[in-house]
């Protein structure tokens, strides 16, 4: 593109900075306890997803019982969060 046409580098950079600030603003408003709670909730959700993925593939009855017990425990923890 020829010079003088379109937006300048400074304008593009300013737009990117504004987008970064807009995305980061809600995170900075969270308290430390809220961030910790959110992090724990995400970890539990990931663990649940992993267990739900494994359950249909499991052939061992002992392993299935263990996964189901873990799933129930994680669902209870998620409800408390």
Short description:
With 81 residues, this protein is mainly alpha-helical. 78% of the residues lie in helices and 0% in strands.
Please tell me about this protein's structure:
The chain has a domain at 32-81. It is built from three helices and no strands. The chain is elongated and about 65 Å long. It has helices at 9-28, 32-54, 61-80. 78% of the residues lie in helices and 0% in strands. The protein is mainly α and 81 residues long. The protein starts with 8 loop residues before the first helix and ends with a helix.
Amount of beta strand? under 5%
* Computed CA radius of gyration, to the nearest angstrom: 23 Å
Number of helices: 3
Structural class: mainly alpha
Q: What's the N-to-C terminus distance?
A: 53 Å
Average pLDDT: 84
Query: pLDDT under 50 segments (min length 5)?
Result: none
Strands, total number: 0
